[in-house]
Design brief:
The protein is an all-alpha fold. The chain has one domain. Helix content is about 75%, strand content about 0%. Helix 2 crosses helix 3 and helix 3 packs antiparallel against helix 4. The termini are far apart. The model has no long low-confidence stretch (mean pLDDT about 90).
Amino acid sequence: MLGEHHDLNHEFPQYKQRIHELKEQDAHFARLCHEYEEADKEVYRIEEQIETPSDDYTEEVKKRRLLLKDQIFAMLSQSK
């Protein structure tokens, strides 16, 4: 949806506690989460037309956010 934040707790509500635990225990996971949050904020600003970069750049940021989300999900799935 346009103009909506996609924070990790919203994206993975079933992993809310595990996200919190891994952020504290795993520096790599915490870095991925931080990068995801930054990319999500950037996409939000673009969709709200606070920033107006090129379409190519916008797609690049969205792809980066999706890649980070996939990596985070993989780590969450393996950590059970």
